[in-house]
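Hey Z.,

So I finally got round to the 6OD thing we talked about over coffee. Here's the setup:
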Amino acid sequence: MRGAQTADRIPEFTPLKSIQNYIDGKFVGGKREFADVNPADGSVIAQVAEAGAELVDAAVEAARKALRGEWGRWGVRERAARLNRVADAIEKRFDCFVAAEVADTGKPIRLASKLDVPRAAANFRAFSDLIKTAGVEAFQTETPEGKSALNYAVRKPLGVVGIITPWNLPLLLLTWKVAPALACGNTVVVKPSEETPATATLLAEAMREAGIPDGVYNVVHGFGPGSAGEFLMKHPDVNAVTFTGESQTGAVIMKTVAASVKPVSFELGGKNAAIVFADCDFESTVNGIRDAVFLNTGQVCLCAERVYVERPIFEKFVKMLKQEAERLRMGSPLEASTEMGPLISAQHREKVLSYYKLAREEGATVVTGGGVPEFGNALDRGFYVQPTIYTGLKETARCVKEEIFGPVCHVAAFDTEEEAVSMANDTKYGLAASVWTNDLKRGHRVAQQMNVGITWVNCWFLRDLRTSFGGVGLSGIGREGGMHSLNFYSELNNICIRL
Ligand code: NAD
Ligand code: 6OD
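And the result:
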């Protein structure tokens, strides 16, 4: 919690009653407004100005203009310094960002303080560091006449990058894309999720304070189809598109952008497996799987919704995981002791509850949960569900195949390593996996067989921002992270000089 120690931090958070678009360094309203709802009690936090096609045009135009201004003339050193200043400005507003993220998402304050906001600052610092040291290729080439030529590449920005993000880790995921895009010299127009508009808007203030020129960072609010999301994706002056969200939405966006042939990066859904071997460190594995299933109320794309446990420890494992799930403190996100908050919306709760019902219809044994908790206070108007564990489903069941995105997992037993690998890989998704064993050779062997973008061994969601991040199959296209981000957010111009 770096920001918590910052002497000149801004401690007071005044909830934004009206959330506006941010275009060319100015906050602007829209023709229509929609409500920003607190998922913990269903109350309306703010009215959000929706950007229509004209405002999206204005944002893209501002971003184009900024490419031609001082931002476009700055070298890497200046840009990198400004990114660090954005990180400083986030840390100075640490409590404001935490409060806004908690109000928008309902996530526990301890989670937003430990994960979301520190990671946002870390994203800017990581790409500030990286762009300063990023090399490009160079080759000495032999010509047909036996002379030589020098090939070297120069890195150039793509131009205006359109960024669309989801609601589960709003600031973390937005800055994960904004930071490398700016590091490479692009300008951006971001459309945060309609469920969580606040922190992208607060980030505008941090950008201003860091001296990021007007038009470099623009925010448009709204929905997907027929709204700001679609207008941004189909805009002819947007040079590249990066999207995080559902696989189905990715498919729609892909069609939208196809007409203008632009680079796309897609970070999409998952139906991630965890494989637990009998030789694992039992207690830390149970705790690790508890986090992998229930963190952020199961609303992390990397969460494990399928847990495969070697038969000799299956019963004991299920019993201990049940205890851990029942021990999770659900409650007000503002209480420091709360470990699990609500789901994001009434609509998403309907979806998760429909899977809870479907699981029973598909023949699941309900180990724990499966319903809605009762608090006897205002939280009953919030969108809470119980942490839930199932066993006994067939591997072909919809609840084992489809992403639910809630605090729920199915636990199944396996007898051999081959069987575990085969069940884990039997999915159209391919985002993340985890393997839990004290046999390091087996850890390597199994990890290398996972058809995913990221495999953790004896841990989960342990991040190094230099590593590649992305998915296979329905889980995405391309990789971001470290140099992969720099390569996506820039074009290389190879220069060949005959010597
Ligand atoms: P979503 O796809 O419903 O929405 C994501 C964003 O896309 C929102 O801003 C939304 O307004 C916008 N959008 C929707 N339709 C659009 C359209 N036609 N054109 C342009 N924009 C459109 O996803 P969500 O419900 O916000 O997020 C949850 C999903 O995101 C889950 O599937 C989760 O696995 C996935 N996710 C993946 C990653 C990853 O890194 N792979 C990270 C977080 C979340
Ligand atoms: O840690 C990250 O960089 C990242 N993109 C996490 C995604 C989490 C999905 O909900």
